[in-house]
Amino acid sequence: MRVLVVGSGGREHALCWKLRQSPLLTELYCAPGNPGIAEVADLVPIAPDEIQKLADFAQEMSIDLTVVGPELPLTLGLADELDERGLAVFGPRQGAAELEGSKVFAKEFMARHGIPTAAFQVVHDVNEARRAIKEFGFPVVLKADGLAAGKGVLIVADQPEADAALKMLFEDRRFGRAADRVVVEECLEGEELSFIALSDGERLLNFATSKDYKRIGEGDTGPNTGGMGAHSPSAVLSGEDASGVLENVMRPTISGMAAEGRPFIGVLYAGLMLTDDGPKTLEYNVRFGDPEAQPLFMRLEDDLLPVLASGARGKFEVARLHFRKAATCCVVLASDGYPSDPVKGDPITGIEAARELEGAEVFHAGTALEDGKLVASGGRVLNVCAAGPHLRDALKLAYEAAGRIHWPSKVLRRDIGRRVLTREA
Ligand code: AMP
Ligand code: GLY
Predict the structure, then answer these.
(1) ω before 48 within 30° of 0 (cis)?
(2) 190-312, which class in CATH?
(3) pLDDT for the residue 238
(4) Which ligand has its closest atom nearest to the C-alpha of 269?
(5) Residues enclosing ligand 1, CB less than 6 A?
(6) If you average pLDDT over every residue of the chain, what do you get?
(7) What is the whole-number distance in angstroms between the Cα of residue 187 and the centre of ligand 1?
């Protein structure tokens, strides 16, 4: 099979690494990819938002399956475009990608289908927002409706913070039209985790549980990032809670989308909060989590390619996925200044030394080649992943591998998984 992967992060590197292991694969392309992905796929210089160009490439190269990594091309209608040209794609069409593309759609959808989530109101201007904030009390959460590169969620603790947030949303228009509508919602407390499954529009294939660490700072402090580390299993979800999430969140989402004429084919990722009242849905994503995908693909035993190809055709050929009993983890190496203003251009050394450790893998995210030398070119630069019999072993190996990699502005969180291990001990 000839496969095209769209994206350029650690998630797409891990996806390409996993697909490369499939005996069914003949050609693997990645648009636009990165220098690490170039080790396992042919790079195609097309950006993820160039929908027509991506579809033209898939058509010209007779691509048998396109797999879309990030949400942006999905919300821009890449799956629709490929579909209309008779080309197979694993990823939701624009109408179904609304689950991630519009927080108002997602919240109202959950309300229509009785899916547990935080209480909320949709507001359109600063006065409505003030009234809603007063009703909920502090702390309260404000969310821009549209995509805002992970920065559109504001958790405000008091009136001065609320004033600053409202100014940013409605006066400075920091998020532009993405904040034409804003969700004001109850702030939930508990442990967060990611629940990821594949859907063919009707059926679900669950991934193992995973957990990511979103804050930049140790002890979950500082601003939110795309994710500074992850592990699988999540080690925070009991078997009983997992079946609750399946029955109360995942299945009703897939059947609700089908009933509303927006069948969901692709990756459904529910961000959950385990509250005292049970699991509640914080958000949907319509793609694999990054960095959660990296440890998940390292645990997945099955050949992923036929699973995605059959899903794209609308009917999975298997009833479940199989995961190694091992634990896996990912530690993100970023550049100082991330998430707002990361240092760029530092040369990177030590990746080969890290990969020499058995059970360790290094996936690239923000890297580039400059005069033949590998340099850091983004906020999240490398993903150091490892497998071990238990989470403790996987984390020890990942941190050892991470210690072999150097560049002047390298930063990492040293506490990925620590709280979970302390609780287990
Ligand atoms: P979202 O993009 O909706 O996932 O929000 C990003 C992050 O904000 C989540 O991963 C949570 O850490 C936090 N968050 C979102 N909604 C809530 C909420 N209702 N209560 C507490 N934290 C939230
Ligand atoms: N790691 C969080 C995300 O991919 O949205």
Answers:
(1) no
(2) alpha beta
(3) 79
(4) 2
(5) 118, 141, 143, 153, 155, 185-188, 192, 214, 224, 271, 282-283
(6) 96
(7) 8
